[in-house]
Amino acid sequence: MRYPPLVWIPIAAIGIGLIACGSSSNESADAADDQVSKDEAPQDEAELMRQAAIEAGLPMSDVEIPVISARTYTTGHIQVNVSGHFDIDASPALDTKASISDGEYTWIQYGASGEAAPNATVTIGHGDMGISVAVGRYVATGTSTECTMKTNVTPAKVSGHFTCPKVGGYNQADGSMGDVKIKVDFEASS
């Protein structure tokens, strides 16, 4: 399975954190560290990745990442506004075949990814949220580290408002880069 680029940041942070920790030569200390007291609740994977990223010096957001149950999406809409290095003011249709939540990670696709027409992908899970917007050869991606992201999750619908005041925009055709501002309102229903 191929994971979106947003997934690799926390994975790299965990690897760096593990390398930085080294190994202990005191086996009894290791055994004591491995025991979890009855009062201590086990940490979830997202919190462990967040702690490793912080220890590795990577920027982390304070945005709470929602857990979305496994589901497919049948209806929805998005309003995408991008200004700066490139501009988008569009409402691409929900791509029902490319939109899914697997219980750990969510991809909600609007428009056809990689096509010339405006399109956007909302990603949620593994300790981060993100929005990728594109039109023609232009693309920009914002994450919860540099954007304000609010979501609402119910058993039948996921909705949100993302605002990214300054993220990098890229033109794949000529390699030019420049800043863009992204504003997105979206919803998708099961």
Topology:
Layout: H1 5-21, H2 27-34, H3 45-55, E1 71-72, E2 75-84, E3 88-90, E4 100-101, E5 105-110, E6 119-125, E7 128-135, E8 138-143, E9 148-153, E10 157-171, E11 177-189
Antiparallel strand pairs: 1-4, 2-3, 2-11, 4-5, 5-6, 6-7, 7-8, 8-10, 9-10, 10-11
Helix pairs in contact: 1-3
Structural notes for this entry:
- It is a single chain.
- With 190 residues, the protein is α+β, with helices and mostly antiparallel strands.
- The protein has 2 domains: 5-55, no CATH class; 71-189, Lipocalin, CATH 2.40.128.
- It is 19% helix and 41% strand.
- It has 3 helices and 11 strands, in the order H-H-H-E-E-E-E-E-E-E-E-E-E-E.
- Strands 1, 2, 3, 4, 5, 6, 7, 8, 9, 10 and 11 form an 11-stranded antiparallel sheet that branches.
- A hairpin with a 3-residue loop joins strand 9 (148-153) and strand 10.
- Helix 1 packs across helix 3 (45-55).
Count of separate structural domains: 2
Class of secondary structure makeup: alpha+beta
Q: How is the biggest beta sheet arranged?
A: 11 strands, antiparallel
Query: Which residue ranges are poorly predicted, with pLDDT under 50 across at least 5 consecutive positions?
Result: 10-21, 23-42
Strand segment count: 11
Overall spatial form: globular
Topology order in helix (H) and strand (E) letters: HHHEEEEEEEEEEE
Proportion of strand residues: 35-45%
Provide the gyration radius in Å: 19 Å
